Amino acid sequence: MASKPVTLLVRPRGKPIRNLPEAASLTLLSSTADLYQRLAAQSGCSVHRLRITKGSDGSGLPNSKDVTIDRTGLRDQSTVYVKDLGPQIAWRTVFVVEYLGPLLIHPLLYLLRPYLYNNAPASPSYLQTLSLILISLHFVKRELETLFVHRFSLATMPARNIVKNSAHYWIFAGANLAYWIYAP
Predict the structure, then answer these.
(1) Domain 5-86 class in CATH
(2) What are the transmembrane regions (predicted)?
(3) Which of 33, 125, 142, 179 is at 20 to 30 A from 113, Cα to Cα?
(4) pTM of this structure
């Protein structure tokens, strides 16, 4: 009974998705990851761009090998809605870009001190040099943790959010902090 084949009716939510099939045939023992893979392959989208929800109550279907179609409550001729989330970017890339801002801005403002401040002495103070070293080490440590330590629960986020996410680090921890630290 549990391996019974089912046909799910597939409908787009939001803007149309090119080549999205009108139905998907699976078994009740198939995982929701199988459904994501099948719809992604047929529509030509990445699985990370798709969000699938049940038509009955609008709840989301996880992209998981551990959750079966049967466990979600879907049955033969159930409707699922598929939304294209748009271009995605990996979380690891997001963090690398965020932390890169202060790593570039602090040395740049440190070196450009004589040109940015009218009455800047020729050489920076010991505290300014120490601040540059410690801030740079801090963000290098964060970059290395991002590349070699962190595990991300989600694979991607919408690409359009990278500017908003990076603004905090680039503006506040980068430009604003550096401007005041390296001032005479």
Answers:
(1) alpha beta
(2) none
(3) 142
(4) 0.76
List CB contacts of 171: < 8 A, sequence separation 6 or more: none
Phi, psi of 120 (to 5 degrees): -75, 135
State in Å, rounded, how far the first CA of the chain is from the last one: 78
Which residues make beta-bridge pairs with 27?
5
Query: Token digits for 76?
Result: 């033969």
Contact in structure between 181 and 113 (CB atoms under 8 Å):
no
- Do the bridges between strand 79-84 and strand 50-54 make them parallel or antiparallel, or are there none, so unpaired? antiparallel
Give the three-state DSSP class for 38. Answer: helix
| 13, two tokens | 């939510």
**Each residue's pLDDT tens digit, 112-154:** 998 898 887 878 999 999 999 999 999 999 999 999 999 888 7
Three-state DSSP class for 150?
A: coil
Residues 145 and 154: their CA atoms lie apart, in Å, by 17
Count Cβ atoms below 10 Å from residue 123 Cβ, excluding itself.
10
pLDDT, tens digit, 9 for 90 and up, residues 143-165 = 999 999 998 887 899 998 999 98
